[in-house]
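[step 3/7] fold_predict: job queued, chain A
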Amino acid sequence: ASQPTGRSLRVAGPGPGRTWRAGQVRAVEWLSAVPPGEPVGSVTVELSHSGLGGPWELLAAGLPDSGRAQVVVPLGVTSQHAWVRVRVQAAGHTGIDVGGPLVIVD
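[step 4/7] structure written:
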């Protein structure tokens, strides 16, 4: 297997068309590549229920870059155009990717 030469990030889930229910615990999954010798990053997961332009609501921060996190869908939120954003920060670099669009129901 080859080793990465640069950092990369891709949200693997949730995928387009998923439906989340407010108050549920849901999985967010991502794939990140870290070149040998560089530190593993810290992950932030956010939600926009207004589309890609935000605003973004913090769901979790300071997570290890493990490729998966469990988050709680905020109560009182409904949307036909929600997105999840994952940010990985390490060694002065920030990788950002989004997953969705999602539907959020009460």
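[step 5/7] annotate
The chain has a mean pLDDT of 93.
The first strand starts at residue 8 and ends at 13.
exit 0
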